[in-house]
Amino acid sequence: MPTWFYPVLEGVIAFFLVAGGLFAFIGSLGLTHLKDFYMRLHGPSKTTTLGVGCVLMASMIYFRATTGHFSFQEMLVSIFLFITAPVTAHLLSKAALHQKLVADSRTRNVPERLEVAEEPDEVNAESSESRLP
Amino acid sequence: MLDIALWISIALFAASLVLNVFRLAIGPDLPDRILAVDTMYVNSIALIVLFGIQLNSKSYFEAALLIAMLGFVSTVAVCKYLLRGDIIE
């Protein structure tokens, strides 16, 4: 490998590391911040998996550049994570539907048998107050 | 540049672990807590890989692979328990 190529490779590795950290942080922020379980499931099942995939890609490029031969373990971990994350999300959503968790009023396509939480809405409160004489 | 990016990434993953612990503590129902634990497994895999990059050693990937498989199996087992009331029928 030519010598001028190493700073380029370092920049690519740094980009993948920071992007992976940002993706995982956004996913965990969604897990903490969103309203009900059906919204919360989106964050970790998609975004965090992508973040870990970015970090494993950075690790693959780094060890290819430093040791000189391709290592297959990172590829194995990322393939395993990308296969198992949808299975886990599907089983968690089935468990949540089985337990009949209360959905937020802004969650769309709620099944009939699920209970929807009533929101403390300012518009409804004002209209009910204005109906009083 | 690589050192700074590595520390930024480690800090972001540690912050996301703290957020997951917060959801694990306040989670109103059981599937929320299972989801928080599963996300903690995935974030700790990334932290172990970053630790391996920082120490320049390749012997941490077996630990990462082991944590990935154990996390998947335990999450599936707990979900199965919630769904059916039994793990092996």
UniProtKB/TrEMBL annotation, chain A:
UniProtKB keywords: Membrane, Transmembrane, Transmembrane helix
Domain of life: Bacteria
Keyword Transmembrane found: yes
Residue ranges, annotated region (Disordered): 112-133
TM ranges: 12-34, 46-63, 75-92
Matches recorded under InterPro entries: PhaG_MnhG_YufB
Keyword match Ribonucleoprotein: no
The protein, known as: Na+/H+ antiporter subunit G
Species this protein is from: Cobetia amphilecti
Automatic annotation (TrEMBL), chain B:
Transmembrane segments: 6-22, 34-53, 59-83
Membrane topology per record: Multi-pass membrane protein
Entry keyword set: Antiport, Cell membrane, Ion transport, Membrane, Transmembrane, Transmembrane helix, Transport
Subcellular location: Cell membrane
Molecular functions per Gene Ontology: sodium:proton antiporter activity
Pfam families per record: MrpF_PhaF
InterPro entries: MrpF/PhaF-like
An example Gene Ontology CC term for this record: plasma membrane
Family, as annotated: Belongs to the CPA3 antiporters (TC 2.A.63) subunit F family.
Protein name: K+/H+ antiporter subunit F
Origin organism lineage: Bacteria, Pseudomonadati, Pseudomonadota, Gammaproteobacteria, Oceanospirillales
